[in-house]
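Our consortium's second objective concerns turning raw sequence data into structural hypotheses that experimental partners can test. To show how far this objective has progressed, the report includes one record in full. It was chosen at random from the queue rather than selected for favorable results. The single chain below, 183 residues long, was entered without modification.
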Amino acid sequence: MPVILPSLTSVIRRSPTRFMHRTILVCLVPLMLLTLLGCAPDGPEVTILDAGIYELQLVGTIVEPDTALGQWTRVQDERLVKATADIPAELGLEFGYRYTVTGLDKGTLLNLEFILRHPPMTLPQTLTPFTEQIHKKTTRCGEPQYDGFGFEHEWERVPGEWVFEIRHRGKTLSRQSFLVHKR
């Protein structure tokens, strides 16, 4: 009895189409789920809005043991006075940058790490020099935020390059440099 085999053309004609449809489906479904869940495949990003010298209102302090003084200052109503990366080390002067976290749904809360690197300064209480300060903060995506430094003490007025970084899970999302100088 003869065996009837389907023609090679009909097999080739059907197989690539089914394979292509399945491949497209397998690739699109995870992307659609990520979109629905508000997750970007690349994760959060930071956009620096402006940087320089600011005027602002101090509203309190938050305990943070990893910083030199064991705390950091909460601020509000920050207003850019001068867009610049050239900063005079004057007591009372506040400098920094405003940023927005993007890449996630607006309003999403995100835990970030803020690193400030600067030339060696010495805390008078301990006489120990240090070059880095770190604090952690929960930030709301899509809303402008501020990070900066104010010269409150004479020993903080250290000339040289000051670098602010924002990190998420060990990945650097932004970097803003300033050159601080004494007049």
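The partners drew two points from this record. The chain is about 15% helix and 55% strand. The mean pLDDT is 81. Both points have been shared with the crystallography group to help prioritize constructs.
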